[in-house]
Amino acid sequence: MPEGHSVHRIARQFARSFTGPPVQVSSPQGRFAQGAARLDGHAIIQSRAVGKQMFLEFDHHLWLRVHLGMYGAWDFAGDIVVDALSPAERGGRAAGDRVVGANEDSPWSIGAPRRTRLRMAESEKLQPELQEWPPAPVGAVRVRLLTPVAVADLRGPTACEVQTVEEVDATIAKLGPDPLVDGPAGEDAFVENVRKRSVAIGQLLMDQE
User: Fold this and answer.
1) CB proximity list for 184: less than 8 A, separation 6 or greater
2) Which residues pair with 50 in a beta bridge?
3) pTM of this prediction?
4) Fewer CB near the last or first residue (10 Å), C or N of the chain?
């Protein structure tokens, strides 16, 4: 199951590799065709993560909200810069044949573990060898985000929808504080919420509200 730190890492990956040029947005699976049409051809100007939810802002004031849930994952390919805070760039395991997504140091599949095996480049830059561009979608891809040099495929999310800024604000307002976003104010809000309830701390930590 992808946890909050993985969602923040995904948001950083989008900020590094997908902001700037117009993005082709499609739904190979077909379930997000109408939503994709509303975003297609627009540029991503911001990526945000709050708790387990990620928000991508496009240049026409619409957002893509994604909640990976238990089984969702983003698969990346192309000219992808490995996230600077991932174990792979902190001296983690070198490249080689391995199951992508099975470990936190994979820059290519972030989220729920995937049983897809990719051959990594001999240069140990963790770059899969692509025989065609863009690569064909693998499995039931809910949404594909494609730039001239990078592609991101989303599979298995709990939620994937287009939102206005007002709807994004309403979604975030329902979430509990995120220590990576809210800072000291979030800590104060969390402590206040905990003190109001006579529930074991472990249960409260698992409650996303």
Assistant:
1) none
2) 53
3) 0.80
4) C
